[in-house]
Design brief:
Elements (H helix, E strand, L loop, with lengths): L3 H9 L3 E4 L5 E4 L16 H8 L11 H9 L8 H4 L1
Antiparallel strand pairs: 1-2
Length: about 80
């Protein structure tokens, strides 16, 4: 298991764990790093209208493991059982 403190530090530096084909966990640092600057983030009018309809829910800490496992349920994935743990 990856200690939460190590994972948080890695994420802060733009590095994340990735399951490798041999079953080990490697660390990936994309170049360039994708960053969405929130101070300049623009929500288009069409999206605002959709959000106002209230048909979507935004939740935190709900069914975390089930969501991660659903994301991993594809022919090729970087999310292994060790990553889920």
């Amino acid at each position: 298991m990856i200690p939460p403190s190590l994972l948080l530090e890695a994420y802060c530096r733009g590095i994340f764990p990735m399951a490798m084909e041999n079953g080990e966990i490697g660390w990936y640092s994309p170049d360039p790093r994708g960053i969405i600057p929130l101070d300049a983030f623009h929500v288009p009018h069409g999206l605002k209208r959709v959000l106002k309809k209230g048909i979507f829910q935004i939740r935190l800490d709900t069914s975390f493991e089930a969501v991660v496992r659903a994301c991993a349920d594809r022919p090729e994935t970087w999310i292994s059982d060790r990553i889920v743990q």
